[in-house]
Specification:
Oligomer: single chain
Strand content: under 5%
Largest sheet: none
Order of helices and strands: HHHHHHHHHHHHHHHHHHHHHHH
Number of helices: 23
Number of strands: 0
Mean pLDDT: 90
Length: 474
């Protein structure tokens, strides 16, 4: 069954051609940027006024953005919002409602991926729907948590639990909030309701305009870098003859540079969207020691940590942090009853892969994430048992050499891990890995095979080992 494409016309096509971007991508950018005037209007006309009027304003704005991008396909988000509300109205606050919500919302998303999917990454209605899916699943969880003893909830759950079922208008406004409907960030219904009621920041207009503009401006800078970089090194280059004519070393380097450029596409969108959330006041996260307002409540990327990353752990902690926090709270930590950290981690990564789509490249990518994190965790924990070795590595010129080596390691192998995520189809990412002789799989997935030899070398040169295992040394 073919999906009926909305008739958008072509008035934006000349601008898209000028920018060197597909028209759907330009529509997406416009939809994110228009959030700035929308929240300014809200700030000076509706802020701390009638919650009902604010809800209607956000619904109207968000639905208009959806219509601009996907036409009649806005019906998909409307159906899922209605089902979420009816489910909460009928059996909300129960484990059964959580399970039904999870199954229905994920199934609807996967069917959407199947109906709209092609051999490439497409900007269609299923793209913002993945954001919506997490939001509606979390809503059901939060109402369920609201029925429990508050003191028995985790810190995260105490911040998001809802002691009552939100109305249909509240759910729709939370869903279509114009600053986050298209690309996120995720934020709880509790945060949204506190914002609308004026209890999040207070009813004085918050000093958030400059921080929001600065965050959005950094997003535009990253977008410009991405546009220049991708014109020089597009995805297609990885399957070109010129790429295959390079030496193995240069292929690894080029793949690393390509990944760095590609990730700026996501970072730019998140920063621009976050800037809108900051300007609205929704991102308020308390005050620092000097009494200055903090605006990190909707952050999805930590730029300083990302750019300075020397491990994949740094990358994961700095990139798509909002979604990672969602998975940690609503998937990983909910699997504690399994009493196995590795099983919980695998299931969380499988969920992330499924949530991204049906292409095999997503699963290959998240398999590599698991292998890399297992490698870094095991090796890092072992090295840190030898203080003398650490002192040598972190002293004098050697610490700078270590930084350069680790930086190259992250950049190069990030490209290796990201390849399938962009190439999607098995024949493309398999050829990609073949061109690199499966080096990342040898290094990371092969770690259990050669770990004893590496640990023996570390033991030999590392000096005295920290006392562990009931005070005994190895």
């Amino acid at each position: 069954m073919a999906e009926a494409a909305p008739d958008h016309g072509t008035f934006l096509q000349p601008f898209a051609n000028f920018l060197g971007a597909p028209e759907p991508a330009l529509r997406l950018l416009i939809s994110i940027l228009i959030g700035y005037p929308l929240v300014l209007i809200h700030r000076y006309t509706l802020y701390c006024k009638s919650p009902w009027m604010q809800h209607l304003y956000f619904i109207t704005s968000g639905v208009s953005i959806a219509l601009f991008n996907y036409g009649q396909n806005v019906v998909h988000s409307a159906v899922c919002v209605m089902v979420a509300w009816l489910l909460l109205l009928s059996i909300g606050g129960t484990l059964k409602s959580v399970i039904i919500s999870f199954v229905f919302q994920m199934t609807y998303l996967l069917v959407g991926y199947y109906m709209t999917g092609t051999d490439t990454y497409d900007i269609k209605w299923s793209m913002p729907h993945c954001v919506l899916t997490l939001r509606l699943i979390a809503l059901t969880y939060d109402v369920y948590d609201g029925t429990k003893d508050y003191e028995k909830l985790s810190n995260d759950q105490q911040k998001t639990a809802l002691p009552y079922t939100p109305t249909l208008v509240e759910i729709a406004a939370h869903t279509y909030f114009p600053a986050s409907f298209m690309v996120g960030p995720q934020f709880s219904m509790r945060r949204y309701l506190d914002f609308v009621k004026g209890t999040l920041v207070g009813c004085e207009l918050p000093p958030c305009l400059v921080p929001g503009l600065l965050r959005g401006g950094s997003g535009l800078l990253y977008l410009a870098i991405y546009q220049v970089g991708i014109s020089w090194l597009p995805d297609e280059f990885l399957t070109s003859e010129e790429y295959y004519d390079m030496s193995l070393w240069w292929r690894h380097v080029v793949v690393g540079i390509w990944a760095k450029i590609t990730l700026y596409k996501y970072i730019s969108c998140w920063l621009i969207a976050e800037g809108v959330c900051i300007m609205s006041g929704l991102s308020y996260s308390g005050k620092d020691a000097n009494g200055n307002c903090l605006w990190s409540g909707c952050a999805n990327v930590k730029i300083g940590l990302y750019e300075g990353a020397t491990t994949f752990g740094h990358m994961i902690a700095s990139f798509n942090t909002n979604t990672n926090a969602w998975v940690a709270q609503y998937v990983y930590k909910r699997l504690r009853f399994l009493n196995n950290r590795y099983v919980s981690q695998v299931m969380a990564l499988v969920f992330l892969a499924v949530w991204h789509g049906l292409h095999s490249g997503y699963y290959a990518c998240f398999f590599m994430e698991f292998a890399v994190m297992n490698f870094e965790r095991d090796l890092g924990n072992y090295v840190h048992q030898y203080p003398r070795l650490l002192a040598v590595l972190n002293a004098g010129p050697l610490k700078y050499i270590k930084f350069v080596v680790l930086k190259l390691y992250v950049v190069i192998f990030m490209g290796y891990c990201l390849g399938p995520f962009a190439l999607l189809k098995l024949h493309r990412w398999w050829s990609f890995y073949t061109s690199l002789y499966f080096s990342g799989h040898v290094v990371f997935a092969g770690w259990p095979l050669y770990a004893p030899a590496v640990k023996a070398i570390i033991k030999t040169i590392g000096g005295e080992r920290l006392k562990i295992d009931k005070g005994k040394k190895e």
